[in-house]
Write a structure and sequence with these properties.
about 120 residues; single chain; mainly alpha; 3 helices; elongated; transmembrane
């Protein structure tokens, strides 16, 4: 048993906890939509990386990380995943801040009306 086979087995087994994470995150309905999409989009990265790795091994006789154009293409999907997650969280934080600001303005209006 070599390190490559152990790594591929660990990779395959790690998919099950991640699918569980996605299931419960979707079910909770607390994650921002774009962030949830980003976590699902990670599966596109995984789905593209596996055939790219096989292609690199068959046609170039080396691992995916040694074939720049394939590796860069696959990693661009990971970059998109990260952008979706961060932009979704950023939007949720901004929405939360706007909600807090409007509620504090409302409470100030109530105080002013009460003192008149």
């Amino acid at each position: 048993m070599d390190s490559q086979s152990v790594a591929s087995q660990l990779f395959a087994v790690s998919l099950f906890p991640y699918l569980g994470f996605l299931y419960y995150m979707t079910r909770s309905k607390t994650a921002p939509g774009l962030t949830l999409f980003g976590f699902y989009f990670l599966l596109a990265f995984v789905g593209a990386t596996i055939p790219a790795g096989i292609y690199a091994k068959v046609h170039y006789g080396t691992s995916l990380s040694n074939v720049d154009w394939l590796h860069g293409s696959a990693e661009s999907l990971l970059t998109l995943t990260n952008l979706f997650i961060v932009l979704g969280l950023r939007g949720a934080l901004r929405k939360l801040e706007d909600t807090k600001e409007s509620s504090s303005e409302d409470s100030e209006d109530i105080k002013e009306k009460g003192s008149i």
